[in-house]
């Protein structure tokens, strides 16, 4: 019965492919597992958010998010782009990319850990034991936590999305359980930064050992040309994007205090999880983009991006209508975050641009991505410094909107340039 239904579905999808201009069977098979993964991640994130809302004060939650943002900001000094690099090379049959990439990533992680240690010591010397100690220990663990996620990039490259779901969802659930237990027993910021990180590291190590034992590892020791170079370019690009995001919390903390940080993070929490379509499609797209020319990708993208936009617009509309009820049920302490959450959800309408960014990244159009990320960083920082004092949290969201509009027009210009050059 299952085989019969599967064949009927595949037949229907093949008939629709000429109209959708997309490999719908690949999207259905891979997207199903990735959607399940994103659903699990979203449920876990929601559970953690409910626990934080009810078991810790907004003041201490704001400090926790401030500490985490500093640790993640220091990660820009490491090879944060190694995940995409591993996916790209594994998709091309270079299975040794995981082992070699992991080794290079850990070496690069020394710089990010060093930055966290320096900031942690600064706070300790200024008698802020809570923030200083949390940044110090969390920063030392951060490179190992990031390294623990690299096996998932390997599964993206092999398109073994089922295995990715098991390991990714398992790690998220285990870390969430550890977080909730800490919140119930002893809601210490230091423990919240440390224990879930150790859980993620242990599961990531198990995933790596599983790959080494069971996956294709032929020629694993053969050096891969440009692995480090490509990872470095991608790291700079992703670091610029991450810097802008993490600076939101730091600037908001300094200008408005930890309570505003807590309100903002609850406001954007659900919209960030609703972006599951974007995350799933990007994961599916990278292996395919690696095997196509950039002009061919750009020719097919407009229609796909339109479908993407319509799907996300429906989700955003439903969320905006239901947000007041959701917050009243789950986060009654943060009802003042509803209006900000509705505004933040509108930013998801720009998510289809991420497909074009992935295409540029896969085909090593680093200059275009550098220019875009530097411009975005400048616009967001300037926007935050100007708008937050005037409009508070809504000013922060406005700065994000301005940056996305700039990216939209810049990517349109790059697409025209690429297509003209291909003629």
Strand-residue proportion: under 5%
Major sheet, described briefly? Answer: none
Number of helices: 17
Overall shape: it is globular
Distance between the termini: 50 Å
Secondary structure: helix percent: over 70%
Descriptive key words:
single chain, 423 residues, mainly alpha, 17 helices, 0% strand
Could you please describe the fold and organization of this structure?
The protein has helices spanning 2-20, 24-55, 58-74, 82-91, 97-125, 129-147, 150-158, 161-185, 189-214, 227-256, 258-274, 276-289, 294-330, 338-346, 353-362, 366-391, 393-422. Helix 2 (24-55) runs antiparallel to helix 11 and helix 13 (294-330) runs antiparallel to helix 14 (338-346). The protein has 423 residues and is an all-alpha fold.
Describe the structure concisely for a colleague:
By secondary structure, this protein is mainly alpha-helical. Helix content is 85%, strand content 0%. The protein is built from 17 helices and no strands.
Helices and strands in order:
Elements: H1 2-20, H2 24-55, H3 58-74, H4 82-91, H5 97-125, H6 129-147, H7 150-158, H8 161-185, H9 189-214, H10 227-256, H11 258-274, H12 276-289, H13 294-330, H14 338-346, H15 353-362, H16 366-391, H17 393-422
Helix pairs in contact: 2-8, 2-11, 2-12, 3-6, 3-10, 3-11, 4-5, 4-7, 4-10, 5-6, 6-9, 7-8, 8-9, 10-11, 10-16, 11-14, 12-15, 13-14, 13-15, 13-17, 16-17
